[in-house]
Amino acid sequence: MNDQNDGLSRLGRVRRGHPEDGSVTAVERRARFVHLTRLSWDLHGLGVCTSLVLPVAGQPILEVRTPTGTTLVRITVVRRHCGWAFVWRPWWARLWQRGEWVWAEADNAADMIMSAVTA
What we know:
By secondary structure, this protein is an alpha+beta fold. It has helices spanning about 1-10, 25-45, 110-115; strands at about 15-20, 20-25, 50-55, 60-65, 70-80, 85-90, 100-105. The chain has a five-stranded antiparallel sheet, with helices on one face. It has a two-stranded antiparallel sheet with strand order 1-2. The N and C termini lie far apart (about 55 Å).
């Protein structure tokens, strides 16, 4: 039993490489998933359609969609020095506009994202 617990505690320290986002630990991948799932649920509460994309390689992405299925924005979560942040950029601003961001721990993150995306 003790060996199993040691194996689980080491799981978070194992580094695995992904081509897009460099080496991340299992704990970091899990944290990204949890933050995006929580945001998806908060957006659902606002009546917004979302879709969580979990690629085999790379970061998970939360797509915010219109009722007809058109993607409005793709949101990722990144780790910054002070904590986790949601980062997004409207689909039409891929080349010429910097992305926007909000702290993932903010209680009103879903409201802030939707106000920026629909503005």
